[in-house]
Amino acid sequence: MTAASSTSQQQRRPWIVGVSGASGTPFAASVLRGLLAAGESVDLVVSRASRLTILDETGISYRDAHWQEDLLSWLSRGADGKPDTFRPDIGDVRHWGAGDLAAGPSSGSYPAKGMLIVPASTACVAGVALGLSKDLLQRAASVTLKERRKLVVAVRETPLSGSTLRQMVALDEAGAVVLPASPGFYAGATHIQDLVDFVAGRVLDAAGVPHQLYRRWEGELGGASSRG
Ligand SMILES: Cc1cc2nc3c(=O)[nH]c(=O)nc-3n(C[C@H](O)[C@H](O)[C@H](O)COP(=O)(O)O)c2cc1C
């Protein structure tokens, strides 16, 4: 490694984004667009099971070998299914295979700001709470916790079993932010994308990343119904 590449590696401190196999791939797309719009670097880990939810919810077959093409189609798509709704710049995204346990994010010495798991399946919640590290996504989450970095877990399941609730408490006690993917309606949503962006915005709030994904509460009751 040259001195120059070593310096550029030191400067790049990405957010690791883990997409697990829960329903809610539009939440992940919105978080990814929000991070990129804020000028953040992203390291992306897409679990094997999430290939099924991405296929089911978008029609896109997400392939490791063609991840740039597939990611661009995914992030360009609106939550209502319309293609080319967004024009994201994915130039600062690095993709890691979910089975690649030698990948950068599997080590605490790899520079990262933290990790956002969006959406988080209950299997993922259990795996991270127990420290299973069954794939790169779960290993990166365990590393994030042990390094005392920010971990946001956007759980998507309903209803929740007692064991998942206990695992969510364990994650909270370990320092993670457990954030149910549940939109609020006070921001005056009129489209499905607004509801998706509300959840994504709360994920970015928890990470401390600035964004304009939803309109914040300003202390005015009845404001939602008067917003267009
Ligand atoms: C279409 C589809 C939707 C799913 N939705 C959810 C969900 O909303 N929440 C959940 O916890 N699991 C859901 N699952 C099940 C997970 O994909 C499954 O538990 C998987 O093992 C998760 O693995 P991962 O955490 O490694 O991605 C869904 C599966 C499929 C095929």
Automatic annotation (TrEMBL):
Residues 15-206 form the Flavoprotein domain. InterPro entries: Flavin_trans-like, Flavoprotein, UbiX-like. It holds the Pfam family Flavoprotein. Dimethylallyl phosphate binds at residues 186, 202. Its EC number is 2.5.1.129. Flavin prenyltransferase that catalyzes the synthesis of the prenylated FMN cofactor (prenyl-FMN) for 4-hydroxy-3-polyprenylbenzoic acid decarboxylase UbiD. The prenyltransferase is metal-independent and links a dimethylallyl moiety from dimethylallyl monophosphate (DMAP) to the flavin N5 and C6 atoms of FMN. This is Flavin prenyltransferase UbiX. The gene is ubiX.
